[in-house]
Prior knowledge:
By secondary structure, this protein is of the alpha/beta class. The chain has 15 helices and 21 strands.
Amino acid sequence: MHYQIQVPNARPAGIVEVFSPYDGKRVGSVEAIDSAGAGQALKNMTAAFNDRRQWLPAQERIAILERAALLVRERSESLIALAVAEGGKPYPDTKIELNRAIDSIKSCIDCMRTQRGSEIPMQLNPASMNRLAFTHRQPMGPVVAISAFNHPLNLIVHQAGPAIASGCPVIIKPATQTPLSAFALADIFHEAGLPKAWCQPVVVKELEVAEQLATDKRVAFFSFIGSAAVGWRLRSQLSPGTRCALEHGGAAPVIIAEDANLDNILPLLAKGGFYHAGQVCVSVQRVYAHRSIAKTVAERLASLAETMITGDPASDKTDIGPLIRHSEVDRVETWINEALRENAALMTGGKRLSDSLYSPTVLLNPSEHSKVSRQEIFGPVICVYEYDAIDDAITRANALPYAFQAAVATQNIDTALYACKHLAASTVLVNDHTAFRVDWMPFAGLRESGYGTGGIPYTYRDMQIEKMVVFHSAAL
């Protein structure tokens, strides 16, 4: 599969080849843009936005999104196959992602149907007499969105969908490893009636070109999903007035109280830790279990890991697929070996299965100084730690510079409420895993984990301004 450049009036600047992270086979290719192409893309969407007579009316945007949702549904199997091939997430999980993407498009439509402004009280004092004031929503302006590899369908919808719904033209730059899904979705939006200048997918071969897109003074809103190092650096370079939202990673903690129902919670934690080979920003990573049950928790998580099938992501039997790059397998292997040298107990896994696959791994009591305890693993690894008092578990859970989603497992309402109050997290899940998400809920990284709030309604709102209109009339 080959995608030509999608920037009107721009010339291609080389080819980005896409290969399967599982077996290295070529999946497709995309024409890249250079600095001149980036300038043209910015020019295209700025011109589209600045001519307000050409703004797409709400009814037209709704119709486009409705048609797009139908087209995604009709082409679901081909889109799933494409995402599996380039991203490596197993077929069953990618199918769920595809259905989420459809639901996310519908959520964009729901946002449009329910948006509203408000009346601002006037005639309350002599200065405000004979006046009527109200607000209404308008698009903020041109959007640049840079996306990650791990959800190549739904992340694009989360960034491009709200832009289309809110009336903002968008340039979307997917991860270099997984651009094909983004281009396929952009094609669907265009086929559904969206003019090309209002959604331009691009790939670049030079980081400087991505920086040019993000930091241009014509950009009203910058949406970033990816590494903290890149996201925070780009935010520091944004032009004055550019708003932004950043979604980075974490090292999600779970506290398991002594009274937790292990039969219920452990399968959820295993899924939340090993889903997409752990390549999820809120993947279960650090599990703090009461000393009386910690070894049992680790052993049972290990048993669950050993039942999971690691292999070809195209198979509907596969639970765990490849890491996105062979170098990531090298890194995970290095981190695990370091933890073992620093006296972690290996409960299962701990070995490379191929250049692209790493076995689901459970460690018991790794050192607090090991990388697996201090940094985001982004691999199929769950660490279990003993604790005696819940305050100690909470202190250790809160000790890292990341804060995103956390969880607590308990049958005691007071324990649950205590953890919800004291855990440093934007979301606390009770008797659930940290990777739970539905697309209409707020999704916000705190501290180094992000800036702003994701989720379809929240991104939609961020991409708009609330404009006030004041009528002054003697008739009032």
